[in-house]
Structures
1.
Amino acid sequence: MGLETMPVSKLHAESSYDPADFPVPTGREEEWRFTPLSRLKGLHNGTAAPTGNVVVEVDAAPEVTVETVGRDDSRIGAAYVPSDRVSAQAYASFEKATVITVPREVVASRPTVINVRGLGEGAGHGATYGHIVVRVEPMAQAVLVLDHTGGAVYADNVEFAVGEGATLKVVSLQDWADGAVHVSHHHAQLGKDATFRSFVVTLGGDLVRLSPSVSYTAPGGDADLTGLYFVDAGQHLEHRLWVDHGVPNCRSNVTYKGALQGDGAHAVWIGDVIIRAEAEGTDTYELNRNLLLTDGARADSVPNLEILTGEVAGAGHASASGRLDDEHIFYLQARGIPYDEARRLVVHGFFAQLLEKIEVEEIRERVLSAVEAELAR
Amino acid sequence: MSTLEIRDLHVAVGDKEILRGVNLTVSAGETHAIMGPNGSGKSTLAYAIAGHPKYTITSGAVLLDGEDMLAMSVDERARAGLFLAMQYPVEVPGVSVSNFLRSAVTAVRGEAPKLREFAKDLKNGMDALSIDPAFAQRNTNEGFSGGEKKRHEILQLELLKPKIAVLDETDSGLDVDALRVVSEGINRFRDTGDTGVLLITHYTRILRYVKPDFVHVFAGGRIVEEGGPELADKLEDEGYESYVKASA
């Protein structure tokens, strides 16, 4: 009693394939207020001409099929409807989509790697719009790596449709060149007893705004969303999580951690979770931690948890942003460890638990050395 | 033969003067006990020598074998041969004990120890202090009990082999068994010969296991009386009251 049946939050209320259904953001909207619109190169207001050059290449496991299809393919948009202006713009503007299918009951023998490579210098010349559909059919299992590199202004949508009893593990690396702009939605739709593991690593680019979301079509879905970001001077790296518990007995866990250093380094983390009235037995937890390594860096962290049922298995959230702890550094230095090495150990320690979750060893090594390189700056 | 010399040391926290002229010389082969009531500045002395940023040295000198410790960074002091066993060892999330110790040993020795040798030293050290080998994979001090943290401090002492060790209330919060294990570790370290120990404590209890050569009574931010081991017995009987009154 006393519980509302409609969410108070107006976020995620609108969805449409047509950009005209979304007003051009002004920066005052809740969903846009943290994003520096002037750095979006026109992705948000229809002025970004599709004259950029981004190449999508897939190195697939032998059991996995890869197709490049036109806009009229019925699998496109089946699992996801755009929920903001840029997402709808990308949906309306892409020319070819990549469809990856893991057939029923197949266990892929190695990771499938999707290379998304911007051929521009920095922000390049003009924008590119993309669309990727990943379908994991019932009882199938696969590991997928989305590797974003190079220079581009790129807006895209990625749909993950994870079938009944299937498992999909995705690592998405945003390792763009300086100056790149990337606005992306990753939506996972989980079938009955499906398992989804997402690991997001965002390091490079002038502005990255990534919105990973999850919805469930049947009970038993299990989503684990992990993220790691390292923000340098002048970078804006934004992650907007959205988990929609609309059916009973599903689980979600969100853990994002970031380190920031340098003037104007800006991290934004939004963690929206809704447990709808019908989603009894939901178990959810979301956490965001930010480590501010220098002055001049800023982290905005906003968890929102809305619970519309009295019957949850567990629901919680936590968010904290803080500086490198002087006592940690002192303790390590008091054992002879030089300051830089002490700082490196503590930052590694901050990310350690997350890094262990990356199952693809070469990716883990790459992320590790990327963190090393950031710390050496 | 190493010598730590503390000369007329004045230390403040913010505007508040805590140490008011401490003079003390600790040479290798000697064990000095500093005893005093809570709030007398004992721990300040320990942290100031180690270089904790919270403490400001307003005047005086600290020399290790003639070298000016106060001009050195915290890690340089440790590499020069100073060790501080802390009263409240710090939890460092995500940094395993073995990674931490290997980094410390590498820094202090100036080269990375051979992996197999280090593993053996670590195992022997942990065995001697009755530390569960599984602790090597745990995060440094995280979730350790008070006694486990203190054992871990002494493990570091034995691995890093400093010239001078400052032990800040290593005995506090230990039950009798843990006190014995920790004291044995300190004694093993002393028995290696060329090392000096400055043992800071509130209670005489640990001095039954670790026999001091000199006892200094600390009150009001300075040493107010000095003597041999018999001074500890006197404190045991009479407490600190007369010193606290005199320094007030």
Note: The first helix of chain B runs from residue 42 to 50.
2.
Amino acid sequence: MEKMALKYSSYKSEKAEIVDIKKLTENEKLFRVVLKNKGRLDHEPGQFVMVSLYGIGEIPISVCSSPMISDYFELCVRAVGKVTRSMHKLKKGDEVGIRGPYGRGFPVRILEGNDLLVIAGGLGLAPLRSLITYVLDNRRDFGKVHLLFGCKEPKDMLFSDELEQWNKRADIHYSCTVDRASPDWAGNVGVITTLIPGVDIEPSRTFAAVVGPPVMYNFVIKELIVKGVPERNILLSFERNMKCGNGKCGRCQIQNLYCCQDGPVFNYEQIKNLSEAI
Amino acid sequence: MKKPKIAFFDFACCEGCQLQVANMGEGVLDVLAAFDVVEWREVMSEKWDKKYDVAIIEGSITDNHAVKRIKKIRKKTDILLAYGSCATIGGVNGMKNNFELDDIRKYVYGESYKFFPTEITKAVHQVVKVDYFVNGCPVYIPEFVTVLKAVLQGIPYYVPDYAVCVECKLNENVCMYAKGITCLGPLTRAGCNSWCINNGNICYGCRGMVSNPNEKSAQDILAKYNIPIELIMNKMNMYNKCREIV
Amino acid sequence: MEEYQYVVLKKELFNDFIVRLAGIKKLIAPIAKGYNNFAYEEVRSGEQIALKYIPTILPAKKYFMPRNETLLEFSTGKKSNVEAFIEYESLTLFGLHTCDIAGIQCLNMALSERPKDYNYLARKNFITIIGLECNEYCDEFASCHLVNASFPSGGYDLLFTDAGEYFIVHINTESGEEIVNITEIFNKAESLHLNELTKIRENKRKVFSNEVPIERRHIPELFDRSFRSNVWKEIGERCLSCGNCTNVCPTCYCFDIRDELELDMKHGRRYRVWDSCQLEPFAKVAGGFNFRKERFVRQRHRYYRKFRYPVDKFSRFFCTGCGRCTRTCMANISLKETLNQLVKESEDRVWKRWL
């Protein structure tokens, strides 16, 4: 067997440095990452990168910072698998590998001039934070912006500082709910779908962006359709197991679609007849 | 980085797994370079009664002395690794569970059997928490080394949960059933690189059963080959009797 | 058919040819493993080769996409470094049937789709392919005609057709021509040889026919109609999820990527291994949710990846009709039988509508 260096490889990543780590909850940390070649990631909201911990493995993580920020990007990581748990042990200054960005994100150009209804369940807020911050950075281009956020318990709330800031802003309507309240919780209790009927939008010119755990989608979509949001305007981002990001390894396939290349963001019309999607 | 202290212990077993490790050739030097071995009965005479980082357990738990001893070891170690069929799934010692305990004691100890208390055979995780499993009789050394690396890295190791057939097919072995021989590969967990079949032997099921076998279909297949289910169950019970303990 | 594209090899010179061919670079050909099992392995002489063989246990993809392939080598720590490699071997593969050549054509398509798989694309350039035409069916499990793989259609450097006393050899590429020139053992083809080839092909047209009663062009529609068919449920009940059907498939290329460190914790490699959509954890996410949890869903996915999804993307089936999945299945899940059942079920539905 001979060996040949490969000038182009679909599997080699860029060196990147973790410049800051913030603990968000018991299980989630926010990593601020800078590419060592000083390059810009140049992602779209909703796209993901493949993060390498050499010797442990590589996983897809959605970028959760605004594309308007050029000198770093952020990844929100829940410690749940082998690589993510190891990632939680990393320190400031440690190195990771980054390749990407991959996939189709939220079509921000198409969203312009429309109202936005952003619906985030739990960790789904991470990719949507990229969209929300992008929209706020370009606020003039969009109509009304609503953000609905739901999580299990108040202590699971991600980006609570930012949520509080957004709550104070006049140009974004924010409401949230928890499945189970704690004694000091004064807000809504119940699943996220209970918030939808009360949202004041003009459905025909509204785009909904929905990201959350697998169980959430069907219920939210049903409510949105009742509300009158067109199927094409319901944008969903899917979490799948991925190994390559190149539409090859087959894990993220939803019938004929590859989540990593054709998604992770799909509109409801595209996937409503695909049985393995939601 | 300080080398982790590692200690090998044996319970009811043939000690063949530690022999495998001792016999791994030059590779053992790499293991010794990565770990500080403080106790290993088959290889060295020193004993260690302080704490250690990793305890490597061979053998199954068959009496109350063993229960006490394994619990003591668990308290003294950060990480406990069970290796070999006896430790991970009960192994051949589990055949004892086919009989009444008193019958066994009478058979072995005769008249004075009452002086020799015993218990049903258990795998190590049926008594104390186990952090890493290396299945197999004996352990497959490449897998053992992979698990040691996972220990050093502080990451989990998952025993493959699919059939030996997967690896066997990749090794292009002629299927034993095509030769008219029964083999437990279709029901047994992979990870051994179909070691036995590569060498002309059948799979004896020493790595334990896959967690979600299609039992109904397996029965149909046995019927197709005219193999009585009892025969397969007996073969399976040679290593896997302890899976019935809940 | 142009005469200059063809040469002839007398059968008594076959062994000499193989010895000379093995002298050029490492030569791989089908060999008998007993119990009617065959495998591609290295050979040095003609006697080792099984000229009459049913498809090998593993297809030739094992050379194009090795089952354990290094993608990267890396060192960790302060002086971290990552390098991308391919491991390759210069090989000649002799004796591939048209089904296996079709399999490589499928892999070529899938892996050159952007983003390209440079590991595969770089390696395939080191492999010479010499085909061996089937003049009759290998066994009852083959369905090569249904998927249009029973007759040669490119994908090789040289193609051998058995004409009794001699082989007629089609030169398809320059590297094929090079082999003819270097081995100096072929004779020029004359019109009588080409007439013989025409006769063989005409005869083949009588021997090979659609193995399932459906026209090729109607297969995608059949699958469009059959997604909720009970046939899948029935297959799912029988499937053991051993992954054999995908591992032996010449067009299955799904993989897993894993990391491995040396015991010194400083050096390591990232490698890919064949994986199977039939194994339970394949589509499971870290949180535990499994998008193809049931066996029938996984089996259905396999069939649609052969007969429906690639049609839109690559305008061809990703089944080559080799029959390996059927031969290897302990539960007797038969590709031909499945298609037959789908056709029958579909016809029943049509009749019901008319009655």
Note: The longest strand of chain B covers residues 52-58.
3.
Amino acid sequence: MLTTTNKKVRELRIEASILKHTKKSPIDTVERGNDMQFPIRWDRTWFHPFQDLLESDTGWAGWEHFQLAIEAAETQIVPQFDTLLSLQQIQGFNPLPHQVDVVRRVIGEMRGRAILADEVGLGKTIEAGLILKEYMIRGLIKNALILVPSSLVLQWTRELNQKFQIPAMAQKKAWMWDQYPIIVASMDTAKREPHRDHILSKNYDILIVDEAHKLKNRRTKNWQFINEIKKKYCLLLTATPVQNELNELYNLVTLLKPGQLGQQSSFQSEYVAGKRKAKNEEQLREEIGRVLIRNRRRDQQLNLTKRIVQTIPIELSHAERTLYEAVTDFVRNQYSQAADLKSMLALLVLQKEVCSSRDAVFHTLFKLFQKGEKHKHHLSPEVAHLVELLRQVTYSSKVQKAVELIQNIPDKVIIFTEYRATQDMLIRALAAANIYAIPYRGGFNRNKKDWMMELFQKRAQVMVATEAGGEGINLQFCHHIINYDMPWNPMRVEQRIGRVHRLGQKNDVYIYNFATKNTIEEHIIWLLHEKIQLFETVIGELEVILENLEKEESVEQRLMQIILEAKDQEQVRERLGEWGDKFTQKKKEIVEHNIVQEEIVYGSAKS
Amino acid sequence: MDQQKVRSFTERYLQAYQCHLIESAPTHIKTQLSIKADKDLLNRPFYWMYVERMNLPPQPAQFCFIFDPEHRPAELRGEYLFFGSPRFSQMLNSAQKHGRFVRLYQQPLSKARNDFSSKPYTPWLGINFKVSYICDQKKDRICYLGMNLRTGNIVEPFYPKINSFDWTSKLPPKRHLIEPRFHFAESVDELEYYLKEQIEQEDPTWAYEANKRLELELKQLDHYYPELGKRTEEQEKERSQRRREIIWQYQPRVEVQVINAGIFYMEADPFLE
């Protein structure tokens, strides 16, 4: 029996305890010793709902539901600090060992702030996606901001959704900043108002920046913007953390962890000996190694398969030859008359198309003169002549070769062409030969692209893709490429091959280059294949070399100029050869420069 | 969690939430979802808002879960369900949302015929806590506690022990309830106190290490910026933002959440306390 006073005391205690539970998550602090303390936060939001049920005695859950709830909670708990849970929760691909290793190190050693500096093609996106997934599973990331070049926004969004089941949204409107927790946006949009204000008002659990070498200069708007964003974890992705000077790396590191490389002044005096020279290299490398991970192809036994390149010579028929000569003459004439940029581009296209297909030429001629000659009732005699020659071409030697070749390949084949008209023609011709071929181009919407990809993988033997379709598709299940016509820009060629020859490709890749004999195409293939050796190996520095080589104009324009201004075939060969030598020289310089940089910053390759 | 477990959880979830099975094959399950399951799994709040506002007859959707996409029939339309897929996460969350609180009575263990006297049932409070240890990393554990509301005795683990009993939501015949001696709020206090003591007894190395990292980071930051008084306003602002970020990132803390809880009436002393 309780005495009256005891009863009173007890009632008071209960009241106090109810009161305590009423407050939202009050904080108890556990103290231990002098240097050890951490708070315990109790979530007590459940208390009142439970008490209400007790009073009303209705609305209870059943025993089955109770059991399921616990089981669900049990599957979601994180049993240890340092195991990777994300690996069990992805489907459809297996990350490579070096990628898993990066995830482990970034989370375990770098504590979620790191520069991912793998060489191109080793999967920085996959690493970032895995890190994001892992933190999300652990409940350490609820919102994320991913800033990428605008051309990659959709690709990132798709990869995060499809590969990692991360519900990322591509940012399109300003209201989306508040609506979606995981947002992919273009850097250029994000740094402008009103977006900038939205972003700076938030705390992001993680900030991921792709192509982060654009942040190498701390006086730029980009750098300052990134610096202002409030974030817990941060990943900077770049294949080239140092392009020109060591300060670039210092600026990147400062975004992640100010002071990691000391103050600016002490960094200069301790580590920098010259623009591209370092001192105390060992110490510098050690410091950099704490925030930067770089995997290199040669360190990872990545076993990219071989590329086997074959030039397929094609003899033009008499009618085709006549058309080719006529178009070439026409282009030369027009070029000497009006050398403005716009018409030059049209001529360039025309010259390339005549090596691709009759249909392609027709489309361009038609468009060209729809504009220039619409006030006239009749075509000019030159054009009328070309049209007449077009009519004479009744079949295509190239198409015939393509059909023949494919009939002898018992595997899947991707044909690349630059022209829609050629694409249509090829599809028709393959269908006539009972070969199941499907088209793929940049203009398709996403669903159609996915559908075509699936058809190609599961049913069709051939995919005929135009240039625009070349980006963002991965076709490791196919290992025969036909370059039906050849882009003049080496980057474009590499992008084509890169769709197929990439991590995950298990077979040697066969590349067939169609070269019509005694045409410009033959010269270009000679340049790309023999002169600069574009096909057999991956030129990692390609982009930088080309940027260095052609500051103002595009590679295509440059080559066009060479061709048009040459007196004869011999001179074409000679001048293209000179351009090739310049390329090779540049390549050598850049490779050497890179080796020096690599040595300083990351040490020599592991042996 | 392998596909077998994903499937068996799904089957039990569908059954518990009154989803009618239309077709069950080794590769997939077709089901007519209940309203509750539709709302939790299919992300169509606008439809449900519309139906409820307009007072229309609700039409929950049919859905096909695929467990083995490799071997499914070619024409089958449905969604691949696996551990890590958003739909399965939604199912896990739905299960936790609707299975929070119970009041249950133990099914009598034996059905002795000539037992005419009424037997007493003792009330217990069971709470399943999720304890999370957080710094720049995180781990959790579940703590299954139960308290006898007559004696104040605390049992751990509680839920795994009572999991093998049969439970019903109605008081079985020839059973009567004993009044609890502890008030609900009081017993919650007791269990929290018990758990708090337990956390305090645990190896604190993780928090110690996290604090060490925190201090190192803060120190490095101090070295980077000029000393007090010599900083520009901008540097001052930047510095304090960085400090907040570092604390946010590293500071060790423990968070305790309640997964679910219940009042359980049981025969005198099933665990021989």
Note: The mean pLDDT of chain A is 86.
4.
Amino acid sequence: MASSSSSSPSFDPRMIKEPQPLPGSPGSWRRYFSFNTDAKVIGIQYIAVALLFLLVGGLLAMIMRGELITPPADLVDPTVYNGLYTMHGTVMLFLFLFPVLNGFNNLLIPPMIGAPDMAFPRLNALAFWLFPVFGVILMASFLVPGGPSGSGWWAYPPLSTQNPLGHALNGQLLWILAVAVSGVSSIMGAVNFCTTIIRMRAPGMGLFKMPIFCWTALAAQLIQLMGLPVLTAGAVMLLFDLSFGTSFFKPEGGGDPMLYQHFFWFYSHPAVYVMVLPIFGVFSELFPVYARKPLFGYHVVAIASFAITGLSLIVWVHHMFYSGTPQWMRNVFMVTTMLIAVPTGIKVFAWIATLWRGSIRLSTPMLFCLAGLFNFIFAGITGVMLATVPVDIHVGNTYFVVGHFHYVIFNMITFGVFAAIYHWFPKFTGRMYYEGLGKLHFILTFIGSTLNFLPMHWAGLMGMPRRVASYDPEFASANVLASLGAFLLGVATIPFLLNIVSSWVRGPKAPPNPWNAIGLEWLLPSPPAAENFAEDVPTVISGPYGYGLGQPLVEDQERFERRAAGLKP
Amino acid sequence: MTSTGRRQPSASPNLVLVAAGLGLDALASWTMAQQSYHWLPVQASTAAPYVDNLFALETGIGTFILLGCSAVIAWTLLFNRAPKYDLDDGDPIEGNLTLEIIWTIIPLLVVLAIAWHTIGINHTLATLGGKQRLATAAPVATAALPIATGSPPSAADSAELGPIQVIARQWSWEFIYPNGVRSSELHLPVDRQIHFRLISMDVLHGFYIPAFRLKQDLIPGSVIDYRLTPSRQGRYRLRDSMFSGGYFATNQTDVVVESGADFAAWLAAAERAPLRPSFNEANDLWQQRLAKRNRGWATVPPAPPPEVNVSLDPKNTHEA
Amino acid sequence: MTSLSQPAGTPAVPSPIGPEQDPGASASPGHDGHGSGHGHNAHGAHADHTMTGFVIFLASESLIFLALFVGYAVFKSSSPLWLPAGVEGLEVREPLINTVVLVSSSLVIWLAERALHRQRLGEFRAWWLLTMAMGTYFVVGQAIEWQHLPFGLASGVFGASFYLLTGFHGLHVVTGLALMALFLVRSLRPGLVLPEGKGVIAVSLFWHFVDVIWVVLFVLTYVWQRR
């Protein structure tokens, strides 16, 4: 990695790039299957493959919910259930959410800051192509003897190093390899995104004129840079324990299984913020557009992102309140965890205040944002409950946590992902989506997800442990509801896929700025040319959310608008 | 940019409306907090009321915030919607420093207050459901000789029962009483502090009794001292809460809390009962799987059912 | 990171490179290298970007070592079983010589860098080769030490952490040597290294990083032996 980027100081990789047809134009599909270094192509590659894995993960989830619709383990063997839930979690996190958000980073960051591409285009393409590689590694674990890893996406030792069949090639090994390769890819991405944001902003775009999405992307990628190395260290030790007979986490050799939990959560709790921060960015971009108002308290919202980054690195022990953690440590980490509610609350209140006295348009992206905001407030409240030690000791490792987690990861983050897909769909495909199908998708998703994840809280409060393949009959009603919700979510993907595919193929042509939004990306044609503004980068003269203020965003705004619309300047 | 059709007069709720809204919100939150006790199992240990009260408090505060925020969002959706074909912008408000300071300080104070309150509860619970990790030079060896036959607690501590060895395996629970009685069902006297010694023979497990609101992981390589006091008679469920592989879901047993006399009678009867293999669901399922040509994904085979004086009876029904 | 501290009210002066108007960012090397008005648009992988990215990468990489060091310290101070039976501790003398060689190679690579800066290619190659020789000496010494140690990877948590730490570091040394070999070959065609020497600066930075890590590692494993 170091050599490829540092060895060619005066070499411009894009000089050998072939002329690119615009995205969506006929006959150009082949480059989506090539080692293309254009960030916009890579972004769409990321999002497309990630959505494919969303379907895989969703299918696994539906089999799990089919199993859990009745108390006994009667649909699949319990060991199969364990493998399914492990893979569901891993696929959704490492093969859907991280990649889809990297896709948005690729699509949005360069146009938003007026850069032609990422700082390191080839590294960017390499990072993307590692994604199918670890996707295949992980999927291959279904085929090895003994099936995939069945130790949960935490892979806590000593369970994860038991290797029941004793084969050198086993599901757990492939799991660790896939996570490690994913980590390498994420680090490459993080180096790239940070450098791009720090170094390649348009003239006049000081940090405090930068769109919030870039702020949150930077804050999130900093977490990747600080957290992933620690997970890597833990994963390497786990790999050695599993395959080379070391005893880092085995008590019989003097090792300590708890140390793995520290390594794991030092990254994996902040990882949730890696996923949630960009969605904070999406909310901060979309609410102003569809409420026609400036983002309320832009500076504070921007800075709060970094407060979250800082705090996220000192909260991990709240996952270990009942695993033998000393009292003082529980108190300290409870306080740090609860403090995260403050910067998060600032953002939530800022969004609500942005709506206040706006001129609200309830299009599909706005609906997803509003529902996501509502769900997020709910998830934040259950999050504070989980932070308080006594409540966590009761509901930790129960379905309450599963419900809370899915409220964050699906009902807020994935809602935000859908909102972002709809909002920027015209910009990057050059086609409008169908509003009716979008709204149908929203309604089904909202009902399905609420039905799926809300009853889980109740089951958890009553004491149903998570990760069980069978359960006592008193939990049946909550589980039936949850399963119905899961199947409804499966149905909800049909209008979504239909919408995306048919709109891209034959939707109405999109104008450069269909939402009348402010931002550098909306001063480009839809879809933008390969190098965005190329040589002619506008000079930014005002903040990113000047709705109703009547100030132009850039110098010579009209010229850029006319050029985007294909008119003579 | 011009605000011709602005909905100014109706767009701001007046003070009376705000006060009424806050009052309603508070009332609803209070109701919800009371309601929250019904979402939890019966309170069967001295720790349970503390947990439930804290949960009710948080439910109340949480409801207040959720309803408050939702009401404002709903208001904007009702009264600040753009009419069709209206392309106007909203009021160009960029921020309000006072407001931003308020909604930074108040949440900060609220969470710090909850945290302060909770630290107090933590210390109370430490005595109610306390634990301490024994530092042993060779923990595994210690775990292998768990039968502390008749080692009585110190005289000052005579009110305490124990230590009861709690031994978790993939996938069974075994309880060894100070007099050597072995059981796969946990019997406890009511209103008396119990001293457990938590030992895992293989992987991580979780000692979790929802009716007690208490949970503690069992960590291979460590012996963990754990104390709690049951406060209500009945039959409750003990569930393994830390994922332990293959037949994790079946790793459950019953906790029977009974009067001191009943407990003494049970213990005496148990002492006379012969050792026999316990009922063990994981082993039953494993045998079924082997009979069906061992289909399924990899798992270690279950440990043999523990030899016990008293076995868990799956026909019993539990309260919570 | 310094550029994050830019105050809100900074007037937006149109400048060739937006962020570089920050005083903090201008400390980076090669600041004056832009001729055109929109320099960053004309160069995808700009030299300055390369250094920024590389420094970010190194910072992140150092955290892997930090995690491994913390793991080592935790094991050493809390594990009930540390040294395997029959092992007294680690021999310090040979590793100390190795350490001195490796650390002084940092000075040598600096001399190489300076030679390149003064456009003296021959001198550059000489110092560069000497650095490589010292690095190779270190790796070979390390391999010999490994061969004679009385414990293995599976000898409890001590053996595991010792081999993991030294092995992971050794991997970095070998990577550094490979990079140096690459640039040695490149220096035969001066056009590839000379104009700004950025690649050489990056390799040199990497080498200093490897050295600093080794010093911490040496203190942790060889010097701190008593429990």
Note: Residues 78-113 of chain A form the longest helix (36 residues).
